[in-house]
């Protein structure tokens, strides 16, 4: 089916876009950003902020770019004198009641009002000697504060809750310049996806209590990553300040999570900052535990494997990357392996307005990847098999006390762990690993999409990625073997034993990942959200 | 409630013939006065024929926009299978305008009959008559008249035995001037905040409840039965020279005149005669200073312009203003132009729906500036600032409320600059003694 | 008549436990609305009028009840209620007086009518309820009776051509 293309010129740049495209989207293709507030690609467009008014040749008035569709031969001017004056006017009107809060406002540095005023606004105010509208801060719910004084009434938050979350819990109350965003006094903003209104708010009117006064936007390092909270695989940004994770935010991926993440995933970053870490390889010598350098530890690892005859049980964390899971399997090639990944379960929470987007019951990011790589035993069966195992290899997995107690019955335990855990003291080797926030790697989500995450902070001490440990030990088992030096090479090598990944490289995955196979777990992939948009 | 005056000899009485005649309120009374013949005739015509007749008559929307009515009805899709709706805009809230309430109070069946004809012509089975919430007497009278019409078979599943269903619902507004804007009115009927919608889509494509809808003003609809009965040519001939503005119009004259009230005159009537003759002219010892002819949302006219204008769409545009709803606000030399402009700005600020930035903030800001000028604390730049803000508020919003706020401000400053200057200089409110 | 801003302010006008409005005759009136609109949401404004006719104002509990009955959320209903100035979100005097002071009426002396009303009712200032709970007086925008200035409304009664001299006589009729 061919798509009708329309040719338009925007600020002198000619583009061809499908019929029905709005001017604001066509402008993106022309490399032109039309300033806007109320418009958002994942929300219905009300055209109320009036920032996006552009000049269209032969049209008698300026037209809103967010709702005007392109017409053949249209000539659009975003930076014309008329359009600039109109935007300057809108910005002036927005600022008259806007408080001079920048010094104390969390949004500073990532504020769209600041950005556009700096770019195109007036240098000084003409609203002299009049009182600004004032209302006290309101607590909307578990994480969201509403600062009415800063609100520009773009209504993104109201539309998100009404049309995307399908829970109209926010409204516009009153009218005229008395209008504000209201919430029914009995209701709280506790919808499982409501934290997105903070990201949607272009200014510092809706703010996160968790992030309140924590860090300045310009102090933050921002790293592209994948939420490790469930099998949905939402794309996120990890914001760190001085190597401490202070915030998670959604990263746009139109095929996975569009522009949103759930509140559960958003809040779950504190574990990335844990201080109780193992920082050096620890080897058991008789009754003593001795710290060692990696060369010694890796040699011991290879030796331990050589010396153990019988089944090996691998108990892996669902947060382990494809690289780590894959290389641990390769290390155990030719052996009798029972491999399982631990999958904590929780409730589901769909975002009804977006098809196929939900907080999933399986609260791990790489379940499908693990199954693809042969981690197919049930958790309970694997735990039961510990008793008769020659070796148990723990891949940074959180064990229950009852599960940890069984380890004594195994022939030996090799623990790759990030967190310092007393119960693992009896392990033959206790090797420090980095968490997913501290390494490069990939996950496969429930749709078979392999997505990259990148290193957001430094691992502590001598901790290394689990794939590196496994690959180095593997290379020591036979002469002539070369361990991959980077995660990219570690990933590329997986294709040799996993047909679905054959020939796939990091370059192929890009920023938004790539689907390599569906239904890898044998489950039917279903739509959780209501209807496509 | 007030009583209308007896018709002036220079009036052309069509719609206002039975104003003041309580007998016209009942179905039987209306039939006695020739009513419902128009509907009966219409039900025997094709919808296309009715629309053609209206087009030929030159009837234009009497709510303020002046859009040709026949043309508007012809926009409704044919054979689309969707329910069509008619909305009657009885949300009369434009300052200076008080004609629709008279039509509803005295000749409710004229409106019902006009709505019924319109329903038939546009293929609608349901008509919502949106009456502003404050109009308690018209609401009561209309409710009774609709029940009366149902009881007598003019409305219902089989209007006058035609086999056509025509249902009418009286919808009470709740205090929002902006609901007189056609798309805001539709949103209000749907149970939403009265926010105007972006167009396209237009009501004929997607109106109330997303269905094809036609919206007309009370006066427009009340004019339909007479046109069908007396013919398009008759209506067209009711104009004094300008073929683009035909028929009669109710002018609501108020303010500083001896005889305020509604006057029905032929289009093209001299404005001078309306003020000095029909409305009885100025109060003793007073002279005309300004006129706002179209309800308050249009530029002010000064004395020279008012005394030389003709009362029709084009004639008033020629003099720099607009006919609008013909809510005629007359100010004599005792009026404080600055105060009245301020008070109008305050009106618009109160009524803004809050969607568009320029309107929400601009109406309030201009009100504050004018208030300060009135207090004697105005700054020398304030007038230029008001004009520039008015320009930013014009032509940039979803609806024209902010343009309407700007119009009196800009024209007031331009034509009555000395009054503003006096406030800026002396800071004292002076009234001509 | 708009409410004070914020949920805290709304809570000031606490009605205690909300007794359902839509019972008996009121429920009949509500159900009579359903066939007139293709959606339940379309019944909202008329439903709010029923509530105000029954109770004199629309409390948070009543908003929640309207929401529940029509398949909407309380927040949504509140957004609609606060848009329209004729819905009261807190109790008002037994006789609610609205005076038009927009320009056409101002030209005809509405200021004096306001002064007379405030004096005669004992309210003293706009928006305040008289100490005997009888009256509240507010200014409103154009009431659409400009040729019969100054119009006032007392409850649902629309009274035109009010001049200060008539005020005591008019008020005497409202106990």
> Order of strands in the sheet with the most strands of chain C?
2-1-3-4
CATH class (first level) name of the largest domain in chain A: Alpha Beta
Backbone structural class of chain C: alpha+beta
The tally of helices of chain C reads 8
Explain the overall architecture.
The complex is a heterotrimer of chains A (533), B (433) and C (175). By secondary structure, chain A is α+β, with helices and mostly antiparallel strands. Chain A has helices spanning 23-29, 81-95, 112-120, 156-164, 196-200, 263-267, 294-307, 322-331, 367-372, 379-385, 401-406, 466-476, 487-494, 506-509, and strands at 5-10, 13-18, 53-56, 63-64, 75-77, 138-139, 144-146, 170-173, 180-183, 206-208, 221-226, 235-241, 244-250, 282-285, 288-291, 312-317, 337-342, 349-350, 358-359, 391-395, 413-417, 429-432, 441-444, 449-453, 514-515. Chain A folds into three domains: 5-91, Roll (Ubiquitin-like (UB roll)), CATH 3.10.20; 129-272, Alpha-Beta Plaits (2-Layer Sandwich); 282-515, Rossmann fold (3-Layer(aba) Sandwich), CATH 3.40.50. In chain A, strand 8 (170-173) and strand 9 (180-183) form a beta hairpin. The longest helix of chain A has 15 residues, at 81-95. The model of chain A is unreliable at 519-533 (pLDDT under 50). Chain B has 433 residues and is an alpha/beta fold. Chain B folds into three domains: 22-236, Rossmann fold, CATH 3.40.50.11540; 238-332, Roll (Ubiquitin-like (UB roll)); 337-426, NADH-ubiquinone oxidoreductase 51kDa subunit, iron-sulphur binding domain (de novo design (two linked rop proteins)). In chain B, a hairpin with a 5-residue loop joins strand 5 (248-255) and strand 6 (261-266). Chain B starts with 26 loop residues before the first helix and ends in a 7-residue tail after the last helix. Chain C has helices at residues 7-12, 24-33, 44-55, 60-70, 74-81, 103-107, 110-121, 167-172; strands at residues 95-100, 135-140, 152-154, 157-159. Chain C has a four-stranded mixed β-sheet with strand order 2-1-3-4, covered by helices on one side.
């Amino acid at each position: 089916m061919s798509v009708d293309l329309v040719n338009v010129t925007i600020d002198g740049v000619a583009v061809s876009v499908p019929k029905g495209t709005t001017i604001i989207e066509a402008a993106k293709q022309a490399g032109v950003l039309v300033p806007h507030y109320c418009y958002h690609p994942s929300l219905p467009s009300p055209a109320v902020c009036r920032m996006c008014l552009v000049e269209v040749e032969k049209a008698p008035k300026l037209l809103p770019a967010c709702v005007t569709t392109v017409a053949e031969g249209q000539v659009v001017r975003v930076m014309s004198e008329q359009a600039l004056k109109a935007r300057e006017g809108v910005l002036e009107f927005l600022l008259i009641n806007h408080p001079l809060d920048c010094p104390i406002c969390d949004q500073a540095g990532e504020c769209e009002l600041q950005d556009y005023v700096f770019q195109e606004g007036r240098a000084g105010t003409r609203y002299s000697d009049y009182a600004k509208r004032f209302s006290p801060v309101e607590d909307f719910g578990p994480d969201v504060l509403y600062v009415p004084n800063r609100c520009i009434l773009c209504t993104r938050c109201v539309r998100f809750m009404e049309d995307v979350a399908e829970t109209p819990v926010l409204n516009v109350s009153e009218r005229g310049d008395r209008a504000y965003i209201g919430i029914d006094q009995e209701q709280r903003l506790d919808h499982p996806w409501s934290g997105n209104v903070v990201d949607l708010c272009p200014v510092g009117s809706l703010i996160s209590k968790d992030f309140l006064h924590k860090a300045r936007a310009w102090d933050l390092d921002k790293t592209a990553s994948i939420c490790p909270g469930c099998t949905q695989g939402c794309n996120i940004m990890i914001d760190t300040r001085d190597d401490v994770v202070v915030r998670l935010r959604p990263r746009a991926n139109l095929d996975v999570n569009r522009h949103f993440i759930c509140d559960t995933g958003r809040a779950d970053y504190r574990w990335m900052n844990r201080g109780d870490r193992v920082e050096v390889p620890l080897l058991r010598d008789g009754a003593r535990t001795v710290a060692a350098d990696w060369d010694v530890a890796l040699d011991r690892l290879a030796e331990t494997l050589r010396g153990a005859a019988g089944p090996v049980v691998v108990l892996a964390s669902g947060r382990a990357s494809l690289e780590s899971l894959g290389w641990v399997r390769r290390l155990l090639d030719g052996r009798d392996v029972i491999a399982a990944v631990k999958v904590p379960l929780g409730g589901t929470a769909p975002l009804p307005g977006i098809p196929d987007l939900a907080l999933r019951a399986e609260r791990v990011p790489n379940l499908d990847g693990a199954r693809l790589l042969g981690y197919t035993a049930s958790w309970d069966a694997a735990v039961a098999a510990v008793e008769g195992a020659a070796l148990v290899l723990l891949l940074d997995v959180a064990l229950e006390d009852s599960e940890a107690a069984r380890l004594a019955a195994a022939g030996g335990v090799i623990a790759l762990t990030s967190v310092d855990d007393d119960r693992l003291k009896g392990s033959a080797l206790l090797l420090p690993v980095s968490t997913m926030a501290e390494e490069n790697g990939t996950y496969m989500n429930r749709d078979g999409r392999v997505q990259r995450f990148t290193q957001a902070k430094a691992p502590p001490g001598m901790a290394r990625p689990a794939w590196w440990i496994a690959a180095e030990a593997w290379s020591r088992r036979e002469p002539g073997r070369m361990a991959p030096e980077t995660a990219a090479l570690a990933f590329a090598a997986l294709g040799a034993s996993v047909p679905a990944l054959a020939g796939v490289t990091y370059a192929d995955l890009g920023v938004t990942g790539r689907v390599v196979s569906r239904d890898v777990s044998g489950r039917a992939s279903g739509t959780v959200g209501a209807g496509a948009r | 409630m007030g009583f209308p005056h007896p018709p002036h000899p220079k009036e052309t009485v069509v719609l206002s013939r039975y104003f003041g005649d309580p007998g016209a309120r009942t179905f039987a009374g209306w039939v006695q006065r020739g009513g419902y013949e128009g509907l009966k005739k219409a039900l025997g015509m094709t919808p296309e024929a009715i629309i053609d007749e209206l087009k030929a008559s030159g009837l234009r929307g009497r709510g303020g926009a002046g859009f040709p009515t026949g043309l508007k009805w012809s926009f409704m899709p044919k054979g689309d299978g969707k329910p069509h709706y008619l909305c009657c805009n009885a949300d009369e809230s434009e300052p200076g305008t008080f004609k629709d309430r008279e039509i509803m109070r005295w000749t409710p069946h004229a409106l019902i009959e006009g709505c019924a004809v319109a329903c038939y012509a546009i293929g609608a089975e349901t008509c919502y008559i949106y009456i502003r919430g404050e109009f308690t007497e018209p609401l009561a009278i209309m409710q009774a008249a609709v029940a009366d019409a149902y009881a007598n078979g003019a409305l219902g599943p089989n209007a006058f035995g035609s086999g056509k269903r025509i249902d009418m619902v009286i919808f009470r507004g709740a205090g929002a001037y902006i609901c007189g804007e056609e798309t805001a009115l539709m949103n209000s009927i749907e149970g939403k905040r009265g926010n105007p919608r972006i167009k396209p889509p237009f009501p004929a494509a997607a109106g109330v409840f997303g269905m094809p809808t036609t919206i007309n003003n009370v006066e427009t609809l009340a004019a339909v039965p007479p046109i069908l009965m007396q013919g398009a040519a008759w209506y067209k001939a009711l104009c004094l020279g300008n073929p683009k503005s035909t028929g009669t119009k109710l002018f609501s004259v108020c303010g500083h005149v001896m005889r305020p009230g509604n006057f029905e005159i032929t289009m093209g009537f001299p404005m001078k005669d309306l003020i000095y003759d029909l409305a009885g002219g100025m109060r003793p010892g007073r002279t005309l200073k300004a006129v706002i002819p179209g309800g308050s949302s249009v530029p002010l006219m000064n004395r020279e312009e008012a005394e030389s204008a003709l009362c029709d769409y084009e004639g008033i545009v020629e003099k720099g203003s607009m006919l609008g709803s013909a809510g005629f606000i007359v100010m004599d030399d005792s009026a404080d132009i600055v105060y009245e402009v301020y008070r109008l700005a305050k009106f618009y600020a109160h009524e803004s729906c809050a969607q568009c930035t320029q309107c929400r903030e601009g109406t309030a800001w201009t009100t504050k500036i004018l208030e300060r000028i009135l207090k004697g604390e105005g700054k020398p730049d304030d007038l230029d600032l008001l004009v520039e803000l008015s320009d930013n508020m014009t032509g940039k919003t979803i609806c024209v409320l902010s343009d309407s706020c700007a119009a009196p401000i800009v024209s007031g400053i331009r034509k009555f600059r000395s009054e503003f200057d006096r406030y800026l200089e002396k800071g004292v409110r002076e009234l001509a003694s | 008549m708009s409410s004070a801003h914020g949920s805290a302010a709304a809570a000031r006008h606490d009605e205690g436990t909300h007794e359902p409005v839509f019972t008996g005759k009121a429920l009949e009136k509500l159900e009579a609305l359903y066939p007139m609109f293709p959606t339940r949401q379309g019944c909202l404004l008329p439903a709010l009028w029923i509530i105000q006719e029954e109770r004199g104002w629309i409390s948070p509990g009543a908003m929640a009840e309207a929401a529940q009955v029509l398949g909407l959320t309380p927040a949504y209903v509140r957004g609609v209620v606060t848009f329209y100035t004729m819905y009261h979100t807190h109790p008002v005097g037994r006789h609610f007086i609205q005076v038009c002071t927009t320009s056409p009426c101002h030209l005809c002396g509405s200021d004096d009518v306001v002064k007379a009303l405030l004096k005669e009712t004992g309210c003293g200032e706009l928006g305040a309820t008289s100490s005997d709970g009888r009256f509240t007086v507010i200014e409103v925008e154009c009431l659409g009776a400009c040729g019969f200035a100054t119009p006032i409304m007392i409850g649902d009664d629309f009274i035109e051509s009010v001049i200060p001299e008539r005020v005591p006589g008019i008020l005497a009729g409202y106990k």
